[in-house]
Amino acid sequence: MESWILALSSSPWVYPALTGFAIIDGFFPPIPSESAVIALAAQAKTSGAPNLLLVILFAAVGAWCGDQIAYQIGSMANPRTLRILRGERAQKALDWAEHALEHRGPAFIIAARYVPIGRVAVNMTAGGVHYPRRLFMLLAAIAATTWAVYSAVIGIAAGIVLHDKPMLAILVGVVGGLLIGTLMEKVMSARSRRKVAAMIASED
């Protein structure tokens, strides 16, 4: 799918395609749309197409819409029973999401946007626990915008460093984005575990 989007980089259709990619990513974690944003940003830096500002705008709009769909799914069904979230890793992400929303809802809704499985778990859980919808929409807008800019910056940086090797710049940018996302997931999970342990210790 990323190769297909890159093939459209000089076409106006790349923007609705990116939006659709980001929407699906909002409720289907196997498709991380940040890699598409990074790749298109690197392509924009090295070749001038597509338009970088439009990449950020359409990615943010798609991400926000996807987050709303995840919230709605969570409000209509128990996220733990969904097939895409039945794995051990996904169930742990849901545990983390419930705890995060209870203690630091706004911060974690924004931060979770940077973690592929984390964002789906948090947003579906937010719907499941009936987190205030208007507040969620506002926080999701902030998260989607900063996430789109963050992903584009990674692609731009790769394009600047490897400006004469566009395909390598795209590859480095995507790999770098995935590594950063994985690192953030581990850091957030570790912080959540420490807080749970502290709460248990205080109760004892």
In short:
With 204 residues, the protein is an all-alpha fold. Helices cover 79% and strands 0% of the residues.
Low-pLDDT runs of 5+ residues are none
Protein structure class: mainly alpha
Overall shape: globular
Main sheet attributes: strand count, strand direction, barrel closure? none
- The end-to-end distance, rounded to whole angstroms, is 51 Å
Number of continuous helical runs:
8
H/E element sequence: HHHHHHHH
How many structural domains? 1
Average pLDDT score: 78
- The oligomerization state is single chain
Q: How many extended strands?
A: 0
Gyration radius (Cα, Å) is 17 Å
Helix fraction by DSSP (H/I, runs of at least 4): over 70%
Q: Proportion of β residues?
A: under 5%
Which helices and strands occur, and which strands form pairs?
Layout lengths: L1 H6 L6 H12 L8 H14 L4 H25 L11 H25 L3 H13 L4 H29 L4 H38 L1
Helix pairs in contact: 2-4, 3-4, 3-7, 3-8, 4-6, 4-7, 5-6, 5-7, 5-8, 7-8
General description of the model:
This protein has 204 residues and is mainly α. The protein has helices at 2-7, 14-25, 34-47, 52-76, 88-112, 116-128, 133-161, 166-203. Helix 7 packs across helix 8.
Which features does this protein show?
single chain; 204 residues; mainly alpha; 0% strand; globular
